[in-house]
Structure formats: C-alpha cells, structure tokens
Amino acid sequence: MGVAEQTAAGTLEFLARVRAAERRLVGRTLHDEVGPSLCSAGLILGLLRESGGETAELAHSAARALEQAVTAVRALSYSADPALAMRCGLKSALQSIAATLAADFESTGAPPWDDATSAAAFETVRALLLITTSTRPHVLLSDAGIEISPLPPLGLPLPTTPGLRITHNGGTLKIEAGGTA
Description:
The structure is a single chain. By secondary structure, the chain is of the alpha+beta class. It folds into 2 domains: 3-80; 90-177. Helix content is 61%, strand content 14%. It contains 5 helices and 5 strands, in the order H-H-H-H-E-H-E-E-E-E. It has helices spanning 3-50, 53-80, 82-87, 90-100, 115-131; strands at 104-107, 138-142, 145-149, 164-169, 172-177. Helix 5 (115-131) links the parallel strand 1 and strand 2 (138-142). Helix 1 (3-50) packs antiparallel against helix 2. The chain starts with a helix and ends with a strand.
C-alpha cells in the first residue's frame, strides 16, 4: 500500500471513529438527559389527569403526545448509539431500528451470537436500512441469522464484518455467522 492509500485509509478510519464518538454522545444525551426529562413530564401529567375535569382531559391529550415523543427519543437514542440498543438484546434493538426507519420486523428466533457479533450485525442492518429509501424492507431475525428483503441493488460493495457472512442475492440480503475472524 502506497503513502497516498495509507493516508486515505487513515483519514477514513479517523472519520469513522469521530462519527462513532459523535453518535455515542448523541445517544447518551438523548437517553440520559432528554429521556428522563420527558418521563418526568409524563409523571406530572399523570398527576394532573387524576385531578379530574377539564384539566384532566388536557393532561390526557398531552400525555399521549408525550408518549409519542418518548418513543421517538428512545428509537433515536438506540439508532444513534448501538451500544444502548444492544443492552436490550438483538431482537429489541432490531425492533426499535426497524420502527424508527420504517421497516417491518419479524422474529422466529435468534442466532446464538456473542455480544460483539450481535452488535456488528445490528450496525450492519442499521446502516443498510438508513441507505434504503425506495422500498419498505422486511427484517427477519431467525436462528440462522438476519434477512432483509426486498433490498434493491445497493450500488456499493457489501460491508465486511469479522465473524459474519453477508450475501445479497435476488433482493434478499442475508447476515449469517461465518466470514473472516
């Protein structure tokens, strides 16, 4: 590898690290600061709902809107910081990211992957759902791995992730155990 290629690779690695750190910061802020504030507001609205009368009706409407905001913040925090999502497990993380990025989700099991492999698979699914805008993909989690379909031609090389084999054939992308260690 020549000096120019090493410099470009180093720059890309640096930018990837900065992006990951930025996403962790956004995720932590949403999870640790914005989320608790919204929950506190929800508790106050709950007390107002119990007061009865017109105030209770207004509080009930506000509580519904607040619950939608809490759900959106939770999904964004999981999307921004995959480590937060992985605390809840691969299935919950995939459900959350699918809901956030307008994909359908189904689970018939879960592969016996360790935490690092699950996190890598989640990050791969997240990235693919982010760049897929022309269809509403279906994400299937099973004992064999993860499938996403329909997935149009990506126009990009498939990501390589240690411990995972990623294939794209006929509109279906599969993530399975294997690949380079």
